[in-house]
Amino acid sequence: MEGVRTVPELTYPEVGATRAGPLPAGWRHVRHRVRLPDDSFGRAGDAVLGWRLHRAAGIRITADAPRAAPGVRVVSGLGVGPLRLAAPCRVVWAADDARQAGFGYGTLPGHPARGEEAFVVTRDDSGAVWFEVRAFSRPDRWFMRAAGPVGRAFQQAYAWWLGRVLRRLCAGQ
């Protein structure tokens, strides 16, 4: 698949599936889409690709590069102090053109889950701007398995929260 980089250390085989089609069967799926202001495509795309969205949402981000690009290693941190959970990922695809800006990253060893998540801003034929989170995952650590439905609810809430934060960033708040 063009623009998708396969990295052997990823913890799942369906690399790039958040970019190009149906999410793979047998995984937990997340899809959340929110409309953004029509004039916000550039601001929203920059916020997603430059990690600003995640940081504004309260996620600690450490990345090998200032913008998402295939091969960039990213560690997201959730929580506080000794309760902070590190979630290492690698960007497997990125897009930055007149119709789409965003990326997908896949889990690396040490992540509490296995799978891939994408954060994408699109502009449709009518000029409407949308933000979408697409993901497929499975628990990979005991505490994620034990979380059961609470873990799934957290993933949905996280996608909703990112949409809300990006709308606020686009409005300049």
Automatic annotation (TrEMBL):
Task: Tell me the ranges covered by the DUF1990 domain, including all copies.
Answer: 11-163
- Organism superkingdom: Bacteria
Q: Please name the InterPro entries in this protein's record.
A: DUF1990, UCP010260
Q: What is this protein called?
A: DUF1990 domain-containing protein
User: Source species, please?
Assistant: Micromonospora sp. CCTCC AA 2012012
Write the lineage as a comma-separated list.
Bacteria, Bacillati, Actinomycetota, Actinomycetes, Micromonosporales
